[in-house]
Amino acid sequence: MWATARRMASTTRSASSAALTFELVGKCSTTRARASILTLPHGQVNLPIFMPVATQASLKGLTPEQLEATGCRLCLNNTYHLGLKPGQEVLDAVGGAHKFQGWNHNLLTDSGGPMLLTPEHSMSLQNSIGSDIMMQLDDVLVTTHPDKARMREAMERSVRWLDRCIAAHKYPERQNLFCIIQGGLDLEMRRECCREMVARDTPGIAIGGLSGGEAKDDFCKVVATCTEQLPELKPRYVMGIGYPEDLVVSVALGADMFDCVWPTRTARFGNAITKHGVLNMKRELYAADFGPIEEGCGCQCCRPVGQEGSLGITRAFIHHNAAKETVAAHLLTLHNVWYQLDLMRQAREAIIADQFPAFVKKFFVGLYPDGQNYPSWAVNALRGVGIELLGR
Amino acid sequence: MTVDTEPQEPESTAMRFEVVSSALKEGTAAAARVGRLALPGRRPIDTPNFIAVTSRGTLPHVTPDNISKHLQVSGAYFSLEDFVEKSQQNLSRPPPIFSAPTSTNHPTPLYSFTGTPSHITTILAARRLPAVPSPIGNSTKSISVFTNTGFQNLSTTDYLSAASTLEPDITIPLADLTNNSPPGTSPTSKRALRMAERTDEWIADWFSSPLSTSTSTFAPVLPIPYPIQWEYLSRLAEDYIPSSQLSGLAVHDPDIIPDLATHQPSLLSLPLLSLSNPSNPHLILRHIAHGTDLFALPLINAVSDAGLALNFTFPAPPSSGSPPLPLAVDLSLPSFSTSVTPLSKSCTCYACKSHHKSYIHHLLQAREMLGWTLLQIHNHATMSAFFGGIQRSIKDATFEDERLSFSRAYDSEMPAGVGERPRMRGYQYKSQGGEENAGKKKNKPAWQKELAVEDDKVEVPETDGGRELQEKGVGEVVKGSGR
């Protein structure tokens, strides 16, 4: 009875497929940002979400328990790498990647990319991995590829490959296959691809081929064009996106899911992601800086000493061991993953409270405190969805 | 309103060590013993036991949250040389650790700088364990230490001042050790005599200087024969035990303990910490049989880096005339690729409860850092259980028998480990002349590693064998993605 009452009181709408439920719980009244709950075979995740990348079934030195403690409930594995090591036979023998790496939450795998031979092989491998979300094999060209005919061919081939993937997918009742929209920077081609892909009714939809060196303006146009066309009650995943500005703008444009190796890779180079930008802890500046990696951050490293689970890690200690002891990389990885997940948590709360535009402005002021040098691509993209960064 | 309570002892500021039980029999000079070492504010350490060995202030591969959650380790060895390198950009900057602010959770600069959990007993020495040999000798008032930016001198007064500032629970004063002779060789008798004389002088300076009362001193016992250092050792016994300034001994070669028992029995009332870096558990057992209470064990870090999971228990499992068991499992071997059993059957550590050999084999193959982390957790847990078994057997007076069975049950040495180690860092070794040219580089060139696997941005030739693609310009795709 309580559950019924709650459902009636909210404007929640949801859609389900065999192995996934998508529940829209909030929409920004200005931009296209959405907050939702995605229920997958290994539990519920809140969208928008950043998904850290555990390339080889391990998140760069963190134990699954530590990754869980950051709040992560969905992370990536790379099909190509798992196909090489440990290999499909081992995955089959062990019973899939969840068991293999001791991760009881959700996994998403990419298609394995052009290293794999066929859509069928990609599906077979992803079925062995047992990921909660599998990606179709697509024909990726860099978006800046000059040959329009070749681009169209890649787009059309990706559609045909989706059909082959759907046919080859052995476990649609327990693994979700997402399609990938291609079409480069040609917005008309993207629209056409959206129509074709949507018609195939996969449980979720990815926008692919981006983050390959195109201008940020073009990137935003493609995301906006696609989200405009996509069904409301399906998750939308923009692949390969990880810079905080890109995440916030893409959320404003109506995307829900993101992944990128950058936050964890840059941690290993001694870089900390903060609301004031990326700080390189190897700089002499931080040698005797006894503040937390980021003031006000709630991660285990930074939360104030005395709070539950606080480690009291200082910038000085990270500086002392960056690129020397692996522990410094592990600690920065903990921090950076937390930062990315928390950014999306905050965006989500702002959307539900219908305060998202204020959140976006506050976020950009944090990065550009003088209010002057906002990147024009972000200004333009946000203007397109009703947020004026340059206004008061 | 008052609540009746047991009369409580006031919180003591002094270290306490008591021997609970000893296997000492009539006529024997030194023997295995069970004790408890308690430092104010720290988790007491039941002995015999071991302490972890840190590198640059951290247990290698294990973050402080994992230390608190998953290790039973109660003590850690720190070396000052890991913190005092000269900054190349800012030569005049004093080592930052000396100005690290303290708090209740991190009560001394050593804790706050390194993030070491406060239940861990901290032990400070000048040099890493094992120390990188220095080509420069020690002088009358200083020793040569090896930092991340090269060799430098550490004077006795600088070391005293560092110890006073950092306030470790236990400090080991400087010893004049030969650090330029090849390992395994003993110094000439002339050199040995000077080692004893200098160390003797230094300890006198040390105890005549004001030192924080919260630091207990463990005096070094040199790796030279007793007759050469008897004057130094008798001074320790006769001057500094009565004055309560001496709290323990840091023994470089525990085989001297029987001599101490014969000539300076009062020294054996002190806790004995071994810095001898034993290479296998048989040696540990031998030193325990002499009466060693605590071990700093760099062996564990080395074993984890080698991809080995320790696999022994004390007492040893009953053997039925079978060949000796290996002391460790080499997880790099391909035979473990599909093995879903824990690293060791009886182990209850986090790595064994949550993971299996197959995964750890994979992590080592893929050179993922988590492999070393999980091995560190397992290997420290195995060592804790080993020492727990030793304590029980001493109490039950079965130690000597069990020690004999153990020596029969297991191989005499650790396996080498075929896996590739983590990259060596500058502070971990000194390259010897000619090594680089002789193809003996410590690390593989970085580009090889990158070629192997670096996240998902691997440059792999596109081999999409789909027939359509082969016909229509795969080459273009490759070109395009390079831009």
TrEMBL record, chain A:
GO biological process, one term: tRNA modification
Keyword Zinc included in the entry's annotation: yes
Cited SUPFAM superfamilies: tRNA-guanine transglycosylase
GO cellular component: cytosol
tRNA-guanine(15) transglycosylase-like domain boundaries: 31-364
Key word Zinc present: yes
Keyword vocabulary terms for this entry: Zinc
InterPro entries, sorted: TGT-like_sf, tRNA_ribo_trans-like
GO molecular function, one term: tRNA-guanosine(34) queuine transglycosylase activity
Protein name: Podospora anserina S mat+ genomic DNA chromosome 1, supercontig 6
Species in which this protein is naturally found: Podospora anserina (strain S / ATCC MYA-4624 / DSM 980 / FGSC 10383) (Pleurage anserina)
Automatic annotation (TrEMBL), chain B:
Subunit structure: Heterodimer of a catalytic subunit and an accessory subunit.
Residues holding Zn(2+): 347, 349, 352, 378
Keywords: Cytoplasm, Metal-binding, tRNA processing, Zinc
Annotated spans, Disordered: 415-483
Gene Ontology molecular function: metal ion binding; tRNA-guanosine(34) queuine transglycosylase activity
Protein known as: Queuine tRNA-ribosyltransferase accessory subunit 2
Subcellular location per the Swiss-Prot or TrEMBL entry: Cytoplasm
Cofactor note: Binds 1 zinc ion per subunit.
Essential cofactor(s): Zn(2+)
Gene3D superfamilies associated with the record: Queuine tRNA-ribosyltransferase-like (3.20.20.105)
Domain tRNA-guanine(15) transglycosylase-like: 31-411
Main localization category: cytoplasm
Classification via NCBIfam families: tgt_general
Compositional bias of kind Basic and acidic residues: 451-474
One GO cellular component term noted in the UniProt record for this chain: cytoplasm
UniProt-listed HAMAP family: QTRT2
InterPro entries: QTRTD1 (IPR028592), Queuine_tRNA-ribosyltrfase (IPR050852), TGT-like_sf (IPR036511), tRNA_ribo_trans-like (IPR002616)
Function, as annotated: Non-catalytic subunit of the queuine tRNA-ribosyltransferase (TGT) that catalyzes the base-exchange of a guanine (G) residue with queuine (Q) at position 34 (anticodon wobble position) in tRNAs with GU(N) anticodons (tRNA-Asp, -Asn, -His and -Tyr), resulting in the hypermodified nucleoside queuosine (7-(((4,5-cis-dihydroxy-2-cyclopenten-1-yl)amino)methyl)-7-deazaguanosine).
Family designation: Belongs to the queuine tRNA-ribosyltransferase family. QTRT2 subfamily.
Protein's GO biological process: tRNA modification
Organism: Podospora anserina (strain S / ATCC MYA-4624 / DSM 980 / FGSC 10383) (Pleurage anserina)
